[in-house]
Amino acid sequence: MSHLPLNLAPSDASPGWMNKGDNAWQLTAATLVGIQSVPGLVILYGSIVKKKWAVNSAFMALYAFAAVLVCWVGWGYQLSFGTKQLVPFLGMPNVALNAKYLTGPAFTGMLPNATMVFFQFVFAAITLILIAGALLGRMNFVAWMIFVPLWMTFSYTVGAYSIWSLGGWLSTRGIIDYSGGYVIHLSSGVAGFTAAYWVGPRATKDRERFPPNNILLMLAGAGLLWMGWSGFNGGDPYAASTDASLAVLNTHVCAATSLLTWLMLDILFFKKPSVIGATQGMITGLVCITPAAGVVQGWAAITMGLLSGSIPWYTMMVLHKKISFLTKVDDTMAVFHTHAVAGSLGGLLAGFFADPTLNRMFYNIDPLKSDSWKKYIGLAYGIQNGRSSAGFRQMGVQLLGIVFVVCLNLVVTSIICLLIGLVVPLRLSDQELEYGDEAIHGEEAYAVWGDGEKFEKSRQVAQEEINTKRRAKV
């Protein structure tokens, strides 16, 4: 018995323009990226914080994943990748749920729009979840519920359209952002740090001591994040191609090199092989290679790993303590260093190491076009081939992208936080900060021996204290 709708012929379900292999890989890559968030970052966030914040931290990630999807198909995708331009940095808003549209060819011509909508959604979702990392342990959950759709609508879509859409103003200038060093990591790092400034710090005792409640589980989440990056970078050629294979290998080589570099620095300076430190090094390596994954040689990926394991280490472990403004902003997961610093570093290194041959392959550049020589050539190759002006131009475009993304997220994130603060408190109350999950959600992460009874008693005590203080204010 046929499962096709009555108005569709068998050929309509598998049209001649669709490449089945590419479509299968693209759906697989999208699922791998989704797994990075759910369960990857859900597990990582829930285990790297104090026990009393485990549920809240994990749920911030889970909520963001669901909320972004609804907004994405409602208007976000068309704002980010719509063929009709509203302004040079934004597409025309529209709903991406029409079956006729979703079964038609995407802008690549080889995949249906439904595949592209889902693939781009998981990138938008993980960006919001990364922002949450800077806000764990004190942001009002209702404020977070409002923040997610607003930031996705007014910040993420602008960056995505400007850098990734075919008509975006930075895209037409030839910026190299293979898979989101700018759109995702630099954006989330700056936005997270900015939002952390407006929300305020954690409770003093939490900031002074914030041990993970389960390091082994944290490693499981980190492992899902690492392996999921095969889809993160391997899916961006939009094809099961040799470029995808190169991107995947470069990704893992850079991550491993960065992890080992960070580990060696921890041992050298702090005499301890920190597990959390190694995880941070893994993340900075993955972030750094992202804007360059499929357009650099393997030796460049190793070099980028050495730099991503050392420069963010220095900014986090040394420079952070010397700059008073950085110490005042409570960035729980250090997303400023692991994503903003590492993302900027990767963007600049992409502009330096990008191989023009690989660029032509990825960007489908026609070498016969009169202006093709001006774009997509790393400075190192420009100097080597006597085209240094083109190489310096590329570095200038990469730097312009950093300035744009930083300014965009500083301004938009600040406005969103200030507006939300007029409606609901950005920060949890003192009582909720003291009791964490029990006061906020009425739930706790672990129910080991005796905790059930303790939980019910402490929940009642917490609620009675809150009620007493409310009555006293009245």
Automatic annotation (TrEMBL):
GO cellular component entries: plasma membrane
Principal cellular location given in the protein's record: membrane
Tree of life domain: Eukaryota
Gene Ontology molecular function: ammonium channel activity
Membrane-topology annotation of the record: Multi-pass membrane protein
Residue intervals passing through the bilayer: 24-46, 53-75, 117-136, 141-162, 182-200, 212-229, 249-270, 282-314, 334-354, 397-424
Keywords noted in UniProt: Ammonia transport, Membrane, Transmembrane, Transmembrane helix, Transport
Subcellular compartments: Cell membrane
The keyword Hydrolase is annotated on this UniProt entry: no
Family per record: Belongs to the ammonia transporter channel (TC 1.A.11.2) family.
Protein name: Ammonium transporter
